[in-house]
Amino acid sequence: MIKLQLADFNIEEETLALRGPFRNTGAAVVFLGTARDFSKGKDIKGLEFEYYPGMAEKSLERLRDRTLKEFDVLDVGIIHRFGKIEIAENIVLIIVVSQHRKEAFKACEFCIDELKRSVPIWKKEFTVDGDVWVEDHP
After folding, report:
1. Span 4-12, average pLDDT
2. Would you list the domain boundaries of the chain?
């Protein structure tokens, strides 16, 4: 499951939907990225995300496929919001379901690291000093 969407998401609904078809699920690891009110010592008033239509979806699909191939997991779901995001709102959700927790944790960490590194989604921070496009993704 891959989604790029403007609206918020329900973590429980998305997790249940992803693990639903699997009777042998022993673990569901969830990463939730949220908007914080600071970055590099500056106060943040809000965020905005833009993405490259068509290419971002393909990149997310490749990331999902690679994760399924490289890790012993049952399924992977990735949701990323775009548009304006208020402080404390949800931004990204990664769910990995697996028979065992160890692989699910490794796969989930891999997914968020690769998403930040390779998927064409850009973040703008609104600060008291002005708007800034973020170039590095720690």
Report:
1. 98
2. 2-128
